[in-house]
Amino acid sequence: MKTLLKQTLAVSVLSTMLAGTAFAAPAEAPPAFVKKVADSLIARLKADHAKLQNNPALVKTIVRQNLDPYVDAQAFTRIVMGTYATNQYSSAAQRAQFEKNFRETLIENYGTAFAKFSNQSYTMRPYKATNSKNPVVTIDFLHNGEKIPVSFQLADKGSQWKIRNINVSGIDLGLQFRNQFAANVKRNGGNIDKAIATFKPDAEAAVEKKK
Q: Which N-terminal stretch is annotated as signal sequence (predicted)?
């Protein structure tokens, strides 16, 4: 009887935990999350603008502190590696190494771009709520009188949203990076380790490709 009672209690507690996990959802609406991230990053860039030009380490620190925590690196990694993210082509250790390298390279890329930041601002487009697990929020960055649309595809991570992909001026960066990585695998004769070690996602080349 005691054993049955313990088993019933254990199942009850486990069910409660699983239910709590299943129904957990971010407290913020998607637009509020994106605005918070953008405002925090822009405020920091403006505050330290005079120091950014000659201090690349500071730029990386700003990106790492104000953007990196909100990126779903695992999801982004799966998107970019594509079919190479499966067990047929890569191991868990290789995917972890790719994620580490990819994250650092993105910080380098974004750092270079943000070092040129002066007094750019942005406006948010009206948000259309959907039932999708990956809502998209679009903002228009204003740069030298030009509007540059940037769409953030989000992932529901339970306690908060995270950015899983980015679209700039109609260019899906995840897809473009996937094409770049696939080309790099071919250049390295299908050697995944070499492809991972030498892969440098080029956001500027991806965006320029459309022009």
A: 1-24
Strands (E), 116-202: 121-124, 136-143, 146-156, 161-168, 171-172
Residue length, the chain? 211
Q: Which of 111-115, 160-164, 166-170, 194-198 has the lowest mean pLDDT?
A: 111-115
* Measured distance CA(43)–CA(65) in Å, rounded: 13
Alpha helices by DSSP H, listed for 48-187, are 49-52, 56-66, 73-81, 92-114, 173-187
Q: Report the pLDDT value the prediction gives residue 106, as an integer from 0 to 100.
A: 80
Q: How many angstroms separate the CA atoms of 163 and 157, rounded? A: 10
Please give the torsion angle defined by the CA atoms of residues 61, 66, 68 and 70, in that order, rounded to the nearest 10 degrees. Answer: 170
Q: Where are the domains of the chain?
A: 27-208
CATH topology of domain 27-208: Nuclear Transport Factor 2; Chain: A, (3.10.450)
Most confident of 46-60, 88-102, 104-118, 132-146: 88-102
Tell me: pLDDT of 13 over 50: no
Q: Is 148 exposed, middle or buried (0-12, 13-18, 19+ CB in 10 A)?
A: middle
Output helix, strand, coil percentages for the chain, rounded to the nearest 5. 60, 15, 25
Question: Any long-range contacts for 188-193 (C-beta under 8 Å, 24+ apart)?
Answer: 192/84, 192/89, 192/90, 192/94, 193/94
Average pLDDT over residues 115-133: 80
Distance CA 31, CA 49 (A): 26
